[in-house]
Design brief:
The chain is α+β, with helices and mostly antiparallel strands. It has helices at 47-51, 75-89, and strands at residues 18-23, 28-33, 43-45, 60-63, 104-110, 113-118. It is elongated, with a radius of gyration of 29 Å.
Length: 124
């Protein structure tokens, strides 16, 4: 719940917890978790107004289930973060020269370009 985002209903100062959007083509009002960013064609609603919401006659209200409690990162999130840290800490694997590069050594590098010096003792 963001303290800066308030209910869109007039004279309501309660904090917003859900976002209401309309899908005009399907005649559906969609009420879901609070959007990440305030959108110009979406309405942020407090708990009271989201519970009392009704749609125009002939329209359907689709209420997306939302867990309003902030539980923090899941186990999957933590495992993915740990894997990313391990991958970043792993030393880079030594590059193995291709068969066409055997008998050469790198003399200079500029970006992705390399200057290779041929080894005189190599058989070609």
């Amino acid at each position: 719940m963001s303290p800066a985002r308030r209910c869109s209903r007039a004279a309501c100062g309660r904090p917003a917890i859900t976002t209401l959007t309309y899908v005009y083509a399907d005649q559906t009002a969609v009420l879901g978790p609070l959007a990440t960013h305030a959108e110009p064609h979406a309405y942020d609603l407090c708990e009271v107004h989201s519970e009392r919401l009704s749609a125009p006659r002939g329209w359907e209200v689709l209420r997306l289930a939302s867990d309003l409690s902030d539980r923090g990162p899941s186990d999957d999130d933590l495992l993915a973060l740990a894997d990313a840290v391990r991958e970043a800490a792993r030393p880079p694997a030594p590059a193995t020269p291709s068969p066409s590069e055997q008998g050469t050594r790198e003399v200079q590098r500029r970006g992705h370009l390399r200057v290779l010096e041929l080894d005189d003792s190599a058989d070609y």
